[in-house]
Write a structure and sequence with these properties.
The structure is a homodimer of 219-residue chains. Chain A is an alpha+beta fold and 219 residues long. The first copy, chain A, contains four helices and twelve strands, in the order E-H-E-E-E-E-H-E-E-E-H-H-E-E-E-E. The longest helix of chain A is centred in the middle third of the chain and has 13 residues.
């Protein structure tokens, strides 16, 4: 977490508990690549909105997509400033005092203006990556997007130029005077795991369910 | 999802795929009560921000808390309009076409202005609920907040008056022409589960780790 490739901007500089901050791309990329959803923040008519959606990172941009009729994508495509935040919850931290209870987490915050991806080849690359991100190689096996589906889909790219990560790991940080308090203290790690797959009818006989790409390493 | 206690406001009315919308409080409350984190959206100097934090619902309000020095809480306490969004990811939906891939999820979006909780008794109630939400009854076992800790903690309450839920469940919705495409289709449910607890030193001898209250029912 000490290797700084990106210098933080004044706006992405982590103000609270700055020792939890990271600005290096390997840390940022790993969080973005593991999370299944991001939260897109934008402002419309004086009201902030936060909309969850799927995403995929390709090199130095984070891509989101959806219906061309989506309010969120409409705003993003028109050059509005966005904030996209991704959060992974890794564990519950049980301290001796109520005050020091916490969560272990890894989060990334990206600020910037998105560009609408209009070139069909780039759009197809992003849509394939969104599928492959769920299960490697799957985009080549499924029915590819039609021209009509491409037209109905808006894709936005947000550069990672202004991004920061915040990470908490480890056990409770109790006050010295509380260490003998007679209560269990420690961490309960959390894991997001796939359960047995539920097949849709009609079945494609002889086909195996996809292997889900969850890269979570709980801690 | 058809029981409408709350009429949607124009701003919380779900525009995309409205059949996935719910405005009834039992649906909204269950999602808020299960999620460990929410994402708070606010606007500062022309830039939206989205900050993850823990929350607890008590009756008709959602409470968030943190350091009195937090940028997010500072904005919220000064009467800025907020959007708090909570998202649970329940499964990955694998369709026959790239286009119809999706996630099963449950999300809640709340709009409004928060009030700062200044009365010490209410503050203590909220802080206890934030701990008990992680493990039932724990707030009575841990060292209670001191006056100094209370002063250093800002608590905001956002009313649930303007809230909506959006829920996707079930399998892929493929085009009829794609049903014979030779690829596996269905749902891989996801579950957030606690792993074996990691005890902090020094140990409180004879104490058992807390039972974590994760109410997720994957589907």
């Amino acid at each position: 977490m000490s290797e700084r490739i990106h210098a933080p901007s004044e706006r992405t500089r982590v103000r609270r508990v700055p020792q939890r901050a990271a600005y290096d791309r390997p840390t940022i990329d790993a969080i973005l690549d593991e999370a299944l959803v991001c939260h897109v923040g934008f402002e419309g008519h004086g009201q902030p909105f936060v909309i969850p959606t799927t995403h995929v990172r390709i090199e130095d941009e984070l891509y989101v997509h959806g219906s061309a009729a989506s309010r969120m994508l409409e705003h993003g495509a028109s050059g509005a400033r966005l904030c996209i935040t991704v959060t992974l919850v890794d564990g519950i931290v049980f301290a001796r005092s109520a005050f020091h209870h916490s969560l272990n987490y890894r989060s990334v915050l990206i600020l910037g203006e998105a560009r609408a991806v209009s070139e069909p080849a780039e759009k197809l690359t992003v849509l394939a990556a969104l599928v492959d991100r769920l299960s490697r190689g799957r985009s080549a096996e499924v029915r590819a997007p039609t021209e009509q589906e491409l037209k109905a889909t808006l894709v936005l790219a947000l550069p990672l130029a202004e991004a920061s990560a915040k990470v908490r790991t480890g056990g409770p940080i109790d006050d010295a005077a509380d260490l003998s308090w007679p209560v269990w203290a420690g961490v309960v790690p959390l894991e997001l795991r796939p359960l047995p797959a539920l097949v849709a009818e009609p079945r494609a006989l002889g086909r195996e369910p996809p292997i889900v790409a969850l890269r979570r390493e709980p801690g």
